[in-house]
Amino acid sequence: MEAAVEPGNLAGVRHIILVLSGKGGVGKSTISTELALALRHAGKKVGILDVDLCGPSIPHMLKVQGQAVHQCDGGWVPVFVDQAQSISLMSVGFLLEKPDEAVVWRGPKKNALIKQFVSDVAWGQLDYLVVDTPPGTSDEHMAAVDALRPFSPLGALVVTTPQAVSVGDVRRELTFCRKVGLRVIGIVENMSGFVCPHCAECTNVFSRGGGEELARHAGVPFLGSVPLDPKLTRSLEEGRDFIQEFPSSPAFPALSSIAEKILNETPI
Ligand SMILES: Nc1ncnc2c1ncn2[C@@H]1O[C@H](COP(=O)(O)OP(=O)(O)OP(=O)(O)O)[C@@H](O)[C@H]1O
Ligand code: SF4
Question: Does the N terminus or the C terminus of the chain have fewer Cβ atoms within 10 A?
Answer without folding.
Answer: N
